[in-house]
Write a structure and sequence with these properties.
By secondary structure, the protein is mostly helical. The protein has 18 helices and 6 strands. The strands form 3 sheets. Strands 1-4 form a two-stranded antiparallel ribbon. Strands 2-3 form a two-stranded parallel ribbon. β2, α10 and β3 form a beta-alpha-beta unit.
């Protein structure tokens, strides 16, 4: 009896237990620690929030303030020397294999917790149980595993202990900044690992998250799936989640034909989607047309990638290729300059509304005079943006 534990489970039942338990842990991380606590993208019912807080302690020895403060610092210092776990600065191998140690080192930094841990639980349980006896929970879990499964429970427990370091500290913080696709050219190297976010709770959509960190929903395209958002939607229906924030929603009024302040404010609010649209509707078709006319010219080989990426994210090799491209082809140079000028418009958001409007108006006028049809049509489409539903 002891060999199989009290429940005498077979191999499939043991596996099901492992997957269910670790999935609840992933949901606790993505919904509670990440979206609700670190980014304040939603408010959870106190009972549900405390269940997740307990679960993080019980199954992962994770303390809310430590996780939250390290993550907030990652966003504040992303891809700099102060980033706790940037593969750009520390190397992908280091983050993949040593992500847990990087997290542990930063989590022990009291300055990080003081500066980035605002709003985290600070009640009696937090002080006298979770933080004071941080390892108690996981050893209770070990005892329970052995009791119900026998010796195999030790192996299951070891896998439970590795689940967060491998997936959250390693894959998300490492692969999520090195390998995958990008919907948006935000200022860091974040990437979407997979369009289907189930295994790691939706955190696979990492580029989307870094673009709109305060959005509770991580998917942005119809073909992307975020299971974490599915749980949040369920919690909302059950009255367990409220004040749910999402990224900017684009409204288009096809009756608008003139650029006005409403158009400009809506465009600035949706600047990341607009830059993605600029790539789809201007860069891609213009590069495709020019490549047809210059089939044997090497500088066009990576033209779409070179023109799309933020120049700061390009290596010296690719910066050189970009310089060669814009020097060789006048139209490529025009598209590149118009992209840079549009990026400069967004920087006017912190200035007066009048200054922002004039900058966008000047950009649209230049696009309309460019003689490049894709640019002209793109400028016309900006006039239809609105902060209100049509």
């Amino acid at each position: 009896m002891f060999e199989q534990g009290l429940l005498e489970w077979n191999g499939w039942q043991v596996l099901a237990y492992l997957l269910v338990m670790t999935h609840i842990s992933i949901v606790s991380i993505t919904v509670y620690l990440h979206r609700a606590m670190a980014h304040r993208a939603l408010d959870l019912h106190p009972a549900l929030a405390h269940f997740f807080r307990f679960w993080c302690w019980f199954t992962m020895a994770t303390i809310t303030i430590e996780w939250v403060s390290v993550h907030r610092k990652h966003h504040a210092k992303c891809e700099t020397d102060e980033d706790p776990h940037s593969p750009v600065k520390k190397g992908l191998k280091t983050v993949l294999l040593g992500g847990a140690e990087l997290y542990k080192t930063e989590a022990s930094n009291q300055e990080t917790k003081d500066r980035y841990g605002k709003g985290c639980p600070d009640d009696w349980l937090e002080k006298n149980l979770y933080q004071k006896h941080r390892l108690l929970g996981i050893f209770i879990l070990l005892a329970i595993n052995i009791l119900i499964m026998g010796p195999i429970g030790i192996t299951v427990w070891a896998l439970q202990m590795l689940w967060q370091p491998i997936h959250a500290a390693g894959i998300i913080n490492g692969v999520g900044h090195a390998i995958g696709y990008r919907n948006f050219e935000c200022a860091d190297a974040s990437r979407n690992i997979s369009p289907i976010g189930i295994w790691i709770g939706g955190e696979e959509l990492h580029n989307n998250h870094h673009t709109y960190p305060n959005s509770a929903k991580l998917s942005v395209n119809k073909w992307e799936f975020d299971i974490g958002w599915g749980y949040i939607s369920l919690f909302k229906k059950l009255g367990l989640a409220k004040n749910i924030r999402r990224g900017p929603v684009v409204h288009v009024d096809e009756n608008k034909t003139e650029l006005d302040l409403d158009s400009v404010l809506a465009a600035a609010n949706n600047r990341f989607q607009i830059m993605a649209k600029f790539y789809r509707n201007v860069i891609k078709p213009v590069v495709r047309e020019q490549k047809q006319e210059n089939k044997s010219v090497p500088v066009f080989k990576r033209a779409k990638k070179l023109l799309r990426r933020d120049e700061e994210q390009l290596s010296d090799k690719y910066k050189k290729q970009l310089a060669e491209l814009v020097e060789y082809d006048e139209m490529m140079e025009k598209i590149y300059l118009m992209k840079q000028e549009l990026l400069a418009v967004w920087k006017k958001r912190s200035a007066s509304r009048d200054e922002l409007f004039k900058a966008m108006q000047a950009w649209c006028q230049e696009a309309e005079r460019s003689g490049i049809r894709a640019l002209e049509e793109f400028a016309e489409s900006l006039k239809q943006y609105s902060t209100k539903m049509a």
